[in-house]
Design a protein that fits this description.
single chain, mainly alpha, coiled coil
Length: 186
């Protein structure tokens, strides 16, 4: 049986990384991956003989020490590769979960809209909405910032003939929009 080189993290795989980071996100794994990449880069600077401080310090290391640092950098790269695979898998899982949530939300909205339509399509329903708003305001349940008289005046101003229909095609559409806003507030 061939012995695994010391520079390979044989016990660290993507599944282990995902298990250890069970409650983390792909962004967390991306952050860890960047840290591992940076650490390996800094270690390689010691062995590279560059013109910066690390490169100059590396000139004073023995061959064995440089070899040991290069092995450490390769080991970090090996772990980094597994973190990268785990990140990609977590990212795919998160995207699939997001699509499922959005689909479930759309289906729930359709189901609620089809089974529980909002009132306000007919004139009687709109008048009932106004009446309920006034009654609930008097009971201090709806819009308690306005007194009964103030809310009545506000609704009356809403329902007066508008001087200009900016953004509406007809007065009926304008009135329906005002009552619809009240219904949403309610």
């Amino acid at each position: 049986m061939a012995k695994t080189p010391i520079t390979q993290a044989r016990d660290v795989d993507a599944e282990l990384v995902l298990q250890l980071n069970k409650f983390g996100s792909a962004a967390d794994l991306r952050s860890q991956q960047a840290k591992l990449t940076g650490a390996a880069r800094e270690i390689r600077k010691l062995t590279g003989g560059g013109t910066d401080l690390f490169g100059k310090l590396g000139c004073y290391l023995s061959f064995e020490q440089k070899q040991l640092l290069q092995d450490a950098a390769r080991l970090l790269d090996s772990v980094n590769k597994q973190v990268e695979h785990a990140k990609e898998k977590r990212d795919r899982d998160e995207k699939q979960a997001k699509k499922r949530r959005e689909l479930r939300g759309r289906l729930a909205k359709q189901l609620v809209a089809s089974n529980y339509p909002l009132p306000g399509n007919t004139l009687e329903e709109r008048l009932e909405i106004l009446q309920i708003a006034l009654i609930y305001n008097r009971a201090k349940v709806f819009d308690p910032l306005y007194s009964t008289h103030q809310l009545h005046s506000k609704l009356k101003r809403w329902l007066e003939r508008p001087k200009q229909l900016i953004g509406w095609r007809s007065e009926a559409e304008y009135f329906a929009s005002q009552v619809g806003s009240l219904r949403c507030d309610f």
